[in-house]
Design goal:
Elements (H helix, E strand, L loop, with lengths): L2 E5 L3 H13 L3 E5 L2 H11 L3 E5 L7 H11 L5 E5 L4 H9 L4 E4 L4 H37 L6 H13 L6 E4 L6 H10 L8 E5 L5 H9 E2 L11 E2 L1 H4 L3 E6 L6 H13 L1 E2 L8 E2 L2 E7 L3 H7 L4 H7 L2 E4 L10 H16 L6 E2 L1 H9 L5 H16 L3 E2 L6 H4 L17 H15 L4 H8 L3 H11 L4
Length: 453
């Protein structure tokens, strides 16, 4: 049944309208003052508001303005015993659905409320249809590419959880497409009209990351010359993507946990919490359960983030997707260049792509294809234009995979650095720590051995 909220300070009018509209099939809520009615508006969730104009305290026009601000599609019918052309025009200009003069005829009032309820239902249905059309269009355009069984299962689960507001934790090696999956979930969600905001927790120092996440108030630290809204607040109504959440310091983990539990944040230097309305999707290339055992990641935050877990398999485990991904990347590159060239892979190039282990995963594949397309000087992408590490016999095998032939110290060092980089998901700062060398030294060795492509 459609629900109508009646607001009038005359109890006789309230009772008359209550009996009339209940008899016409409406669910009826009544209030004898505007302030109380507005306080209950969200709880009542009416389909029609019927209010007197002249009331002590909050007038009917003030009720109209407040309702329009909260829900512009909610029809408001104004009633008055002192009608004038000027007040009628003012009411319509302010967005009233209709303007009724007292005394009214019961059949006309019932018909008017039915028409208002039908308008509300049509607006809601129209909004849902538009949302469904946008969702279908966006999902077709942005659905991650792949037919591998394990990968398709990840997409299926993502599509199931997308319409909810549940927190999602996406895991996988660097370059597997965790942010692409997060955007796909956002586009399929009820929040797709809102913003998608992301931040890489490993790319910023702790103090700056805290300010970016939670905001700060003027004067809270040197250089804070004005208030700044944090990204968690700026993403209101949308989705916030926390990339590399495993890099976050213990102190920030505590603040993030509180934000997830209480749905509120305290900006740096502030004392009052501020509410947030955002869905959280986090991602990491680390094994967070292992980090918990090491004492570097909080178990309570892990369980708060890991409501829904999605693991993207590495590209070497979904080799059947390599031709699809290659075709998609080359088509996108052709569209971006806009020169009318349609790229294709020669058989030898495709065989090399299939045989390679792809430590950098999908991101490495994209970069390799872009390089090869540019160097091929034509529509056919040739194996000779691919990076040498991909076309070399056996790829970049580790020492343990090579035939025993007295490897040099350089070969051993190169293989060990590569193994550590893979184990740490490409995180160079973490790899340098494991290797026991400065990050600058690691970068020099990466460049020396050609491990940065």
């Amino acid at each position: 049944m459609p629900k109508v909220l009646i607001i009038d300070d005359e109890h006789s009018i309230l009772q008359t309208l209550k009996i009339l509209l209940r008899g016409e099939g409406f669910e009826v809520e009544v209030s004898d003052n505007g302030r109380e009615a507005l306080a209950r508006l969200s709880d009542i969730a009416p389909d029609v508001v019927l209010t007197d104009i002249r009331m002590p305290g909050v007038s009917g026009l003030e009720v109209l303005a407040a309702v329009r601000e909260k829900d512009p599609e909610l029809p408001v019918i104004l009633m008055t015993a002192q009608a004038s052309l000027q007040s009628a025009v003012q009411a319509v200009n302010q967005g009233a659905f209709y303007y009724v003069q007292k005394p009214f005829r019961n059949d006309e009032m019932a018909a008017l409320c039915r028409r208002a309820a039908e308008t509300r239902a049509l607006a809601r249905e129209n909004r849902q249809l538009k949302k469904e059309i946008r969702r279908r269009d966006s999902s077709r355009a942005a659905r991650p590419v792949g037919k591998n069984r394990a990968f398709v299962e990840v997409l299926r689960l993502a599509e199931m959880v997308a319409p909810t507001d549940s927190t999602v934790l996406v895991t996988g090696e660097s370059g597997t497409g965790k942010e692409i999956l997060a955007r796909y979930i956002h586009q399929l969600s009820e929040r797709e009209a809102g913003p998608f905001v992301s931040i890489n927790c490993g790319a910023l120092p702790e103090s700056l990351l805290e300010s970016e996440l939670f905001g700060h108030v003027k004067g809270s630290f040197t250089g804070a010359v004005r208030d700044k809204e944090g990204l968690l607040a700026a993403a209101r109504g949308g989705t916030f993507f926390l990339d590399e959440v495993g890099e976050m310091s213990p102190a920030l983990q505590v603040k993030l946990l509180r934000a997830l539990q209480e749905r509120e944040i305290v900006p740096v230097g502030a004392t009052e919490p501020r509410p947030i309305d955002v869905r959280i999707i986090a991602a990491t290339n680390r094994d967070l359960e292992q980090e918990i055992r090491r004492g570097t990641f909080r178990s309570d935050l892990y369980y708060r983030l890991n409501v829904i877990s999605l693991h993207i398999p590495p590209l070497r485990e979904r080799r059947d997707d390599i031709p699809l991904l290659a075709e998609w990347f080359l088509a996108r590159l052709a569209a971006e260049r806009g020169d009318g060239v349609t790229y294709s892979l020669e058989a030898e190039a495709l065989a090399a792509l299939r045989a390679y282990d792809w430590p950098g995963n999908v991101r490495e594949l994209e970069n390799a294809l872009e390089r090869a397309a540019i160097l091929s000087h034509g529509p056919v992408v040739r194996a000779a234009a691919l990076p040498s590490r991909i076309t070399a016999p056996g790829g970049r095998a580790l020492v343990s995979e090579r035939p025993p032939a007295n490897p040099t110290l350089e070969i051993i060092e190169r293989a060990y650095i590569e193994w550590v980089l893979r184990a740490e998901g490409g995180n160079k700062a973490r790899a340098a720590e494991v290797l026991g060398i400065d990050p600058s030294t690691l970068y020099r060795k990466i460049n020396r051995y050609g491990l940065g492509d």
